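User: Design a sequence. Structure:
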């Protein structure tokens, strides 16, 4: 594990918030600071394409950045490759184009207005033409988790009481319960997003960095150094 490691929660198409978070990290740890992004790069916000471009360009430039896949990233990928809008883990039954999920905003950031196209087939064809092949490849090759020392970075969480080799990779992107209410220790401190709150939350066995950027709240990065963790604000490191 690096001496110092940064993490950024769910971005959800908020390019301005991503740039602000990156500036806070650079001010604290320099331009080459290692960062783990916890997925949900796309949907809801106005510039999912810009977020994708920014992360891909940074990685291509050699920045030590790791991005794990979120469930919204998976939905975007499934639409492009399988023409699928639904997912059995969406208990409400709504599809990716529903307002609460934000797929239409993602496509609009690529110049595809689904309301202006006559058929589902036309929407899919336009999306496949508009989304660069490099963006789809990036989505397809995102890992589901990243481990660094005693920290496990994963988008949604893990299933309590299940050995690592028997974990369902789908849970890494989608789980809420029984993960969130589990009071026991996990093999690692789990750093995750997926379940938005008013701001990041720290528990004895997990840290949730989804502070609701997808709903217009600030994107607040965290810094891990030794056994300590802080949030990064404009004023610097803040304990939590």
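Assistant: Done.
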């Amino acid at each position: 594990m690096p001496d110092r490691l940064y993490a950024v929660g769910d971005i959800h198409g908020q390019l301005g918030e991503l740039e602000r978070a990156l500036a806070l990290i650079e001010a604290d740890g320099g331009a080459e600071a290692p960062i783990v992004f916890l997925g949900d790069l796309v949907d809801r916000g106005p510039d999912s394409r810009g977020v994708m471009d920014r992360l891909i360009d940074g990685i291509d430039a050699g920045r030590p950045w790791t991005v794990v896949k979120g469930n919204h990233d998976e939905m975007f990928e499934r639409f492009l490759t399988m023409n699928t809008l639904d997912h059995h883990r969406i208990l409400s039954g709504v599809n990716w184009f529903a307002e609460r999920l934000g797929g239409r905003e993602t496509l609009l950031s690529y110049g595809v207005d689904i309301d202006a196209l006559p058929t589902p087939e036309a929407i899919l064809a336009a999306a496949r033409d508009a989304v660069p092949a490099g963006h789809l490849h990036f989505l397809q090759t995102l890992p589901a988790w990243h481990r660094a020392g005693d920290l496990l970075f994963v988008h949604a969480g893990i299933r309590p009481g299940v050995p690592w080799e028997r974990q369902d990779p789908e849970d890494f992107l989608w789980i809420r319960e029984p993960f969130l209410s589990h009071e026991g220790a996990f093999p690692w401190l789990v750093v995750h997003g997926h379940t938005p709150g008013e701001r990041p939350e720290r528990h004895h066995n997990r840290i949730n960095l989804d502070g609701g950027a997808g709903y217009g709240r600030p994107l607040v990065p965290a810094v891990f150094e030794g056994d300590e963790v802080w949030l990064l604000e404009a004023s610097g490191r803040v304990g939590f």
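Residues 15-29 form the longest helix (15 residues). The chain has a mean pLDDT of 97.
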